Amino acid sequence: MFEIDISSGALAALTLGFLLGLKHATDADHVVAVSTIAMQQRKVWSGLWVGTSWGLGHTTPLLVLGIIILIVKESVMSRYEAVAPVLEFGVGIMLVFLGAQVLYNLRRGRLHTHVHTGEAQPHVHVHATHRRASDDEPPEEDGARSRPSVFRLRSFVIGTVHGLAGSAAVMLVLLPSIDGFWVGVGYLLLFGVGTIISMGAITILLGVPSALTQGTRRLNLAVAGVAGIASLGFGLMLMSDIGLGTSLSPL
Questions:
Q1: What angle, 0 to 180 degrees and rounded to 10, lies between the N-to-C axes of helices 153-163 and 74-107?
Q2: I need a labelling partner for 21 at 20 to 30 A (CA). Which of 10, 37, 172, 191 fits?
Q3: What is the rounded CA–CA span in Å between residue 248 and residue 64?
């Protein structure tokens, strides 16, 4: 059995981990990335599972690396800081890919609106021609809609890519100063919980514009286009900042 002396600073460390997680999910690159998925969901509440899956993917590599840092301390942290810019550049590439994919689908006419009239609440949603409504959801069957998956693999992968880049480094830097291995693990877990909660709320909000424009085809497609342009543009700015030393992105 192990004991945590809350009065010695453990409570402060755990609280800080949770608050950093809440704040971390609001980073611009995170919001832009998940917006390319959240704005294509059929329902606003579907964004909750997008955000949750992203948060789980984001937490997984941080938890693994964080535990290693708690054991080995500064030696691993210094190596991580050396490769952090490369990981951040990879995030930029991913954002460009996500944005370009949305715009390509729009240009090729693969994203279009589909009207559901045989339901209690008729609605319109954007999806790819002869494909699923969203890459995170299973395809629809003729005459019936299959039950959507709670776990979203694409969101999980995007979260994993983001996991070791960006402001997560700030959270990891504090690990060697935490007194106690289990307090450090709790700090990591609460950071993950805060991230999942925050991103779940954000993706629900991101789904609102798409829901509000479901009855208007052009507006619905415009919402998807804005998400694609934002992702593409932010990714290019991030890559320029890291590769060329510019200061274009808001990070």
A1: 140
A2: 37
A3: 32
What 3 state SS string does the chain have? CCCCCHHHCHHHHHHHHHHHHHHHCCCHHHHHHHHHHHCCCCCCCHHHHHHHHHHHHHHHHHHHHHHHHHHHCHHHHHHHHHHHHHHHHHHHHHHHHHHHHHHHHHHCCCEEEEEECCCCCCEEEEEECCCCCCCCCCCCECCECCCCCCCCHHHHHHHHHHHCCCCHHHHHHCHHHCCCHHHHHHHHHHHHHHHHHHHHHHHHHHHHHHHHCCCCHHHHHHHHHHHHHHHHHHHHHHHHHHHHCCCCCCC
**What's the token pair of residue 186?**
């709790």
Alpha-carbon span 115 to 124, nearest angstrom: 4
Q: What is the pLDDT of residues 185-217, one digit of tens each?
A: 999 999 999 999 999 898 888 877 766 766 677
39 in Cβ contact with 227 (< 8 Å): yes
